[in-house]
Amino acid sequence: MQVRKESEEIRLSEDRDSKSEKFGCRRIALNTIVQNQGSCARDHLANERTLLAWVRTSIAMIALGIAIAKFSQGDESKADRLSGIIVGLCLTSMGVFFICYSRHHYHYVAEQLELGNYPIHDKGVDMMLGVLVVVSMLLLVTVLMVHS
Beta-carbon neighbour count of residue 8 at 10 Å? Predict the structure, then answer.
């Protein structure tokens, strides 16, 4: 998996720039071009799909956390409002944490794929599941303590 030669890259860049100038817009290069040998493209696309799945799940957690916090504001009891805000804040925080983690993991896997390796991420999965279990248990205890 070698990166294209600089002269070839410049030629491709000039071709793109001349096409872009016809339409009055400028292109910003946000990608790295690598040769597609073997399963290179397939591996990188799978890595990207995994990132997008993590981000989609994180956005759902953030939205759920905001919704719980927002809808708990109308509750008449102070305990219900407090527990709704705590649960909403925890879900939102976990969603933001998962987005940051998924970005780190995406770049790590992409780097390893370029080196010809593929890291099996068993410790990371265990860590994420552990965080979910611990936070869920803490939320359950907090909500029960607030309501008693």
Answer: 11
Cβ atoms < 10 Å from Cβ of 99: 18
pTM: 0.69
Looking at residue 106, its pLDDT comes to 93
Q: What tokens does 90 get?
A: 């925890």
Q: What residues are paired with 34 via a beta bridge?
A: 3
CA distance 140 to 11: 60
28-66: buried (b, 16+ CB within 10 Å) or exposed (e) per residue? eeeeeebeeeeeeeebbeebeeebeebbeebeebbeebe
Residue 37 confidence (pLDDT) above 80: no
d(CA 89, CA 95) in angstroms, rounded, equals 10
Burial status of residue 93 (CB atoms within 10 A of its CB: 0-12, 13-18, 19 or more)? middle
Q: Confidence band (pLDDT; 50, 70, 90) for 1? A: very low
Average pLDDT over the chain, rounded to whole? 80
- 10 token code pair: 């410049």
Q: Which two tokens stand for residue 55?
A: 């981000």
